[in-house]
Every structure is written in structure tokens, then in C-alpha cells.
Write a structure and sequence with these properties.
The structure is a single chain. With 193 residues, the chain is mostly helical. The protein folds into 2 domains: 90 residues, no CATH class; 76 residues, no CATH class. Helices cover 70% and strands 0% of the residues. Helix 5 runs antiparallel to helix 6. The protein is elongated and about 80 Å long. It starts with 16 loop residues before the first helix and ends in a 9-residue tail after the last helix.
Length: 193
């Protein structure tokens, strides 16, 4: 009998739960921005103050309260052109986030650098906002009742994303190309495992 050719062991594909978490964040931001763009565009021909009053009635809120009257006045200042610009901006942002999510899934090298750059870009802005709001004490320890806590959470997430991707950039990209070269030029040149 002829000696059997030893097939080299193909290393198991390592999971990257942190990378998948970052992909999920980017994907959810993209979908939210897309829905926001579609919602804003669908409202361009509507009477916004009247729609706001209907929403308040649906939620069983008193539309005659001073806060809601002032908010309705502000909503009345929004023009259809402003809504269209907002919809276009949201659509561009959605495409940008979905591009990042898809690029990270397929571990495209330049997308990794794009995500690092985009996340790092906002870090100084978030620090500035925290310093600027420093004079405002935290009165309510709820995430949505105090913008300072929300900004701090976003800052921590962005720093973690930048740190993780920068520390693992070579492994993430190399793993993808290493895996592709193993499957396309496997033993015997068949291209299939």
C-alpha cells in the first residue's frame, strides 16, 4: 500500500465575540439611522404640529401643558426642506454604519482602520462635552435623565472599540486572509476542504 499523504491540520477558526459585539453596535446604529431617515422623509408632506397633537392624544398626554405647547411651536418651525436634508444626512450615516458593520464581518483591512478612525474621531468631542458639562452635578443617576452619564458611557464604548481594534488589527485581518488562503489553496490544489 502506498503511504497515505498526511493532510496538515487546519486550525479551528477562532471566535471573536468582541468583534461581533462591535459589528452589532455598528449594524444597530445603521438600521436605526435608516429607519430615522425613512421616518423623516415620510413626514415631509405632513402638518407636523397636528401630527404631534395626535401623538399626544394617542399617548393620553395633555397637549395644553406649557412644555408641549412650546415643543409644538418648535416643531412648527421645521420645514419640509429641513426634513429632507435630515433624511438625506441620516441615510448617508446609515450607509456608513452598515458599510462598517459589513466590512468588519468580512474583516476588510481598510474598514478596520476606518472604524478605528471614526471611533477615535469622536473621543475628543465626548471628552469636551464631559468637561463642559462638569459644572452640572449628577442629580439623577439614570442614564437617560442625565446627559453626562450617557456621554460617559459612549466615551467608554468608543475608547474600548478603538483599543480593541487597534490591539487586534493584525490578528483580525491576518486571520481572514490566512483562512482564505488555506481554503483556496488546500492540499491537492482542489480549493475545497
Amino acid at each position: 500500500m502506498a503511504a497515505e499523504a498526511k493532510i496538515p491540520d487546519v486550525p479551528k477558526k477562532k471566535r471573536a465575540p468582541t468583534l461581533y459585539f462591535i459589528v452589532a453596535i455598528k449594524f444597530l446604529k445603521g438600521v436605526a439611522a435608516l429607519l430615522l431617515a425613512l421616518g423623516a422623509y415620510s413626514l415631509t408632506d405632513n402638518n407636523l404640529p397636528e401630527e404631534f397633537r395626535k401623538l399626544l392624544g394617542f399617548l393620553h398626554l395633555d397637549p395644553e401643558k406649557k412644555f408641549f405647547i412650546e415643543l409644538a411651536d418648535r416643531i412648527g418651525e421645521i420645514t419640509p426642506a429641513n426634513l429632507e436634508w435630515f433624511a438625506v444626512g441620516s441615510l448617508i450615516y446609515a450607509a456608513f454604519m452598515l458599510l462598517q458593520a459589513g466590512g468588519l464581518v468580512f474583516r476588510v483591512g481598510w474598514i478596520v482602520w476606518l472604524v478605528i478612525g471614526e471611533s477615535a474621531f469622536f473621543i475628543p468631542i465626548e471628552i469636551f462635552e464631559l468637561v463642559r458639562r462638569h459644572a452640572t452635578p449628577i442629580t439623577h443617576p439614570h442614564l437617560f435623565s442625565n446627559p453626562k452619564i450617557g456621554i460617559a458611557v459612549v466615551l467608554v464604548v468608543n475608547v474600548a472599540i478603538v483599543w480593541y481594534l487597534f490591539q487586534n488589527r493584525d490578528r483580525i485581518i491576518r486571520h481572514h486572509y490566512h483562512h482564505d488562503s488555506k481554503t483556496s489553496a488546500g492540499p491537492g490544489g482542489g480549493g475545497k476542504d
